[in-house]
Amino acid sequence: MTGGTPLHQRWIVLSGLFLVYMASNGVILHTLPLLYPELMDSFGWQASEVTLPATVFFVIGAVTSPPAGWLLDRYSSRAIIAIGSTLLTLGLLAYSATNSLWQLVAVYALLGLALSLCGLVSNMVMLTGWFDSGRGRATGILLMASSLGGALFPLAVGSGIEQFGWRQTVLLTGVGVGSLMLGSVWLLLRDGRRVVPPSPAPGTSKGQEGRVIPLLLTRRFAAIVFATGSLWFIIIALTQHQSIHLARDIGLARSSLPSVFSLFFGCSVVGKFCFGLLSDRFDLHRVMATAILMLAVSLVALSQMTPGATALLYGYAMLAGLGFSGAFTCIQILIAAHYSGPLYGRILATVVLIDTLCGALGTQTIAAIRESQGDYTAAFIGMALLATLSAVMVLGLTRLTSGPEAPLQRTDTHP
User: How far apart are CA 286 and CA 163, in angstroms?
Assistant: First the structure.
């Protein structure tokens, strides 16, 4: 942890970030997909149409991440998170009044901008500034918030849909989430003072500290973004499509969907904390590869799901929750381990840009496969193979990072 900072201040900040992240990601990423079957019934949309707004959301989030990283390197993280929380609240309120696909696309575009300001990048930049040693544990605790939100909010939203309908439920959710997020911002201690940044990543020369481009033109960075981009492709596609698969293809009762979501994200709470601890104690790359392979096995199980296979359904939810959360947690720790320092905000935002575009691609690719094949079987098997390749790439990072970073292109002029 950053020396000279009282322990209670660090944990107050972490508590505030936890609540902000739980409300923002827990609702936007992990709960709103629960509405897809309702929207398909209400408007007659196909899978590719109902997931189109989410695709736009990820694209907008991707292209606004680098400007957000630039702002976070220069201005108060607390103020930026407050602005993002306000925009997110407005987006949810507008969601409840949506009457057409393009209105929903506009709402998701606003949510994408909002989450760039109050989501992963801003939370990790602030956390990394307050925590140095023990960062894996702190990161695991923070990322647990998203899964905790994913475990709690679907139960509340699912109950609300049954009692009030989806419009009124989204309206009430917007009011509650906005109040929680804006209230939690007060726990984020003023960060006008500049916390002493962690040491630059190995292989970063003094002259490179002010330059981002040289760090991006290395084999190490290419390997990292291939692995993380593949995982975002898988994770986002899975979280966006599993409700459609379970409700439409498997025939799971709508009333049972929230309990499956809750188990999935409840296990991911455990996974994020445990894999965060493991990354502090063991080789990060091996820990991350283990989580990715667990995710791959769960995707195979999902592809073989049949109506009435309750044991397989809940086994999938537990294993997928652990694998998804462990991989996602290790992504954040991996980037911080390699690139924490004066340029961390911009590098993280660049990685998030690439990863989020991969997530958007995954959302639409999986929808297209379902519509062409009639189900998700081929898509889930393909995702499992991609996850396995990502695990191999992560293990290869151990060799790549054992020495100085190697540039992607030769910089000398000798033959």
Answer: 46
Mean pLDDT value across the chain: 79
CATH number at 7-190+212-398 = 1.20.1250.20
CA distances from 100 to 43, 73, 173 (A): 8, 38, 20
Q: How far apart are CA 43 and CA 227, in angstroms?
A: 37
* Residue 108 contacts residue 17 (beta carbons within 8 Å): no
Name the pLDDT band for 45 (thresholds 50, 70, 90). Answer: confident
pLDDT tens, residue by residue, 106-131: 999 999 999 888 887 788 888 877 77
Domain ranges of the chain: 7-190+212-398
DSSP, collapsed to helix, strand or coil, labels residue 94 as helix
**Cα 210–Cα 216–Cα 217 angle in degrees, nearest 5:** 115
For residue 413, the model assigns a pLDDT of 33
- β-pair partners for 407: 218
As beta bridge partners, residue 218 has 407
DSSP 267-311: HHHHHHHHHHHHHHHS-HHHHHHHHHHHHHHHHHHHHT--TT-HH
